[in-house]
Amino acid sequence: MAGRDSLPEGSLFLGLDSSTQSLKATVLNNELTIVASEIVNFDSELPHYKTEGGVYRDPADDRHIFSPTIMWVEALEVLLEKLKPKINFGKVVAVSGSGQQHGSVYWKKGSHAVLSSLDASKSLLSQLKDAFSTMNSPLWMDSSTTKQCREIENAVGGALELAKLTGSRAYERFTGPQIRKIYQTEPDVYEDTERISLVSSFMASILVGSYASIDETDGAGMNLMDIKQRTWSKSALEATAPGLEAKLGNLAPAYSAAGRIAPYFVERFQFDKNCLVIQWSGDNPNSLAGLTLNTPGDLAISLGTSDTVFGITTEAKPSLEGHVFPNPVEPNGYMVMLCYKNGSLTREDVRNRCADKSWDVFNSYLEKTPPLNGGKLGFYYKDHEILPPLPVGFHRYTVENLNDVSSDALLEREVEEFDPPSEVRAIIEGQMLSMRGHTERFGMPNPPKRIIATGGASSNESILKSVAQIFGCPVFTVQRPDSASLGAALRAAHGWLCNAQGSFVPISCLYQGNLEKTSLGSKLAVPAGDKEQDRELLQKYTLLMRKRMEIERRLVEKIGRS
């Protein structure tokens, strides 16, 4: 069977990750070892856009969050210039990428002509700055489309019907509701748009010099695609906006080629003219590839700007929470995912308030406070949360009778504040308890065989210890926390191989039996506790998790969005 040996000697595979706060690159050689990496941080390296955390927040509506589209264009140029001294672009045989999911770009009428005739003597920025019908791209952090979500759900027969059809009920950040809002509130922008891209297909479009298709995996994050047929759903399109299908173009499998790299990059950066651009996909699907997640009992937890939990399954069983997407590297499989908006930025907020703005102090607090935190439970929403759908706010409770094994005996009372060390443990334990509660409710494995942790906070051993204690399973980490750009580079190699073979080949044949010799292997970070006291602790965490889910349900009934 075709495998890693089929990759050309001396060839390079470029993976890019256009995320909320930065654009990253990871380069793999034909042995699947990382040979170069680079990053452009939007806030610090492109300060003229004046973004905070890569985004703009509407001062008139704190639910409305977006980014300047053109910033991503300029970031691509800056990144390639930074990579130039590190690698020979002529040796790159395939490039693929990852985009923050759900974000959308609106190309204005006539822009395809501009895109397909880029002049290599001029910057991308100067040529594409007027190519968009709106200069702002709605993002996954936006929660201003609650009204549009309900309208779309009602039009197709309810939230569960939409979930069964598209893999998810309507979520504010999903692209369909965002498109509907633009159609309703800025009809001129919608009318003047000839193509709507996701962040992933937008970046791929620049690289091929033509509109790239949306891939089937990222396309499932729009509330527009029939999850079983992997085609646009007529009823979802009609519920969203008129004439939408023509603006979306066709869907394509994630492993297929979007085309050859545009002459612009051949002339300006000396890429080989035969370099393939493999379909880009979303950041979480790329992480799934980069983590080589291929066993149904495994779970991955990504601790980044957003926190996500995902796994794989052979059948789609959508429900009212969580998401089902096609597996980007296994045409007949699916990935299941839960997403939290309050991730690293909310943890940083607690660090800044309670731990002298220092991760060292934060970790020392985490180490010196006991597991279970004396029954202190916290809910921390610096931004409007996705899961559960709760507004900005902080809620703290003390749970009593935790030593009693029956959860009926647990009594909670709301409190105003915790001392700083307890606050630190409460934000970590609270998120992990919520993840465990929701993954079990969503039908993900309980306990998982193992958890693979990725994202910035996965390098924090104190946090990983809590993950292992709360889930009751071993926690593994990968060599690089930026699994999305690594996954994109691996998918570039996989797509190149599928293209060379003329049909799909399993991605595992690239690394089977050789994982530890590549940059893809994972290592045990925290083992599962197997002593009696560990089992007792897990039992208590199970009670605390149920209590937390009960309090959460009451909060949603009282102040939730849906």
Task: Walk me through what this model shows.
This protein is an alpha+beta fold. Among the domains are: 289-341 and 479-525, no CATH class; 344-449 and 527-559, Nucleotidyltransferase, domain 5, CATH 3.30.420. A hairpin with a 4-residue loop joins strand 2 (22-29) and strand 3 (34-41). The protein is globular and about 70 Å long. The chain starts with 11 loop residues before the first strand and ends with a helix.
List strands and helices in order, with pairings.
Elements: E1 12-18, E2 22-29, E3 34-41, H1 42-45, E4 56-57, E5 65-68, H2 69-83, E6 92-99, E7 104-108, H3 111-115, H4 124-128, E8 136-138, H5 146-155, H6 159-166, H7 175-185, H8 187-191, E9 193-198, H9 199-208, E10 214-215, H10 216-219, E11 225-226, E12 231-232, H11 234-240, H12 244-248, E13 251-252, E14 257-260, H13 263-269, E15 276-278, E16 281-282, H14 283-290, E17 298-303, E18 307-313, E19 323-326, E20 334-340, H15 344-354, H16 359-368, E21 376-381, E22 393-400, E23 411-415, H17 420-441, E24 450-454, H18 461-471, E25 475-478, H19 483-501, E26 522-526, H20 532-559
Parallel strand pairs: 1-6, 6-15, 6-16, 10-13, 17-24, 24-25
Antiparallel strand pairs: 1-2, 2-3, 4-5, 5-8, 7-9, 11-12, 14-15, 17-18, 18-20, 19-20, 21-22, 22-23, 25-26
Helix pairs in contact: 5-6, 5-7, 5-11, 14-19, 15-17, 16-17, 17-18, 17-20
